[in-house]
Amino acid sequence: MIAGDTAWLEEYRAQLPERLYKCLEKVKAFDFAHTEDGKYNIEGCGTLSIESPSTEPAVMRRMEGHKKYIDVVYLIDGEEWIGYLPHHDARGEKEAFPERDLYFFEGADEESRLHMLPGRFAVFFPEDLHRPLCAGSIGVRRIRKAVLKVPV
Predict the structure, then answer these.
(1) Taking the model in full, what pTM does it have?
(2) HSE-up of 109 (CA within 13 Å, CB side)?
């Protein structure tokens, strides 16, 4: 898992794989203010889903993972916590939707939490499980985010 803030993207350049850096550049430059929620092809990167879901208490969210895609999560507006757990620490797969490359897992007693604010990003590789859309300090609310699905 990699996390950061697009305000510092240029400083991260030397540490990021070139393909991932270029995809993050495209996400940072995307005109979210004038684009409706939906799915968009980002050439050379994958499919960008722009969505406006509501956060929920963490106990209502499930730990998820993917096998064929890297998730690049970018927060456009609001606040969200994302739980993180290495795949090998999960207690096992609970539900699978291979046609959607979506797998749900039983979490562990402890997981790391990533605080997302506008401009921040997180990259989840197939070895990284994540619990998205957990309510932050301001409570349950609607947020706006983008998730780029980058083929492995």
Answers:
(1) 0.94
(2) 0
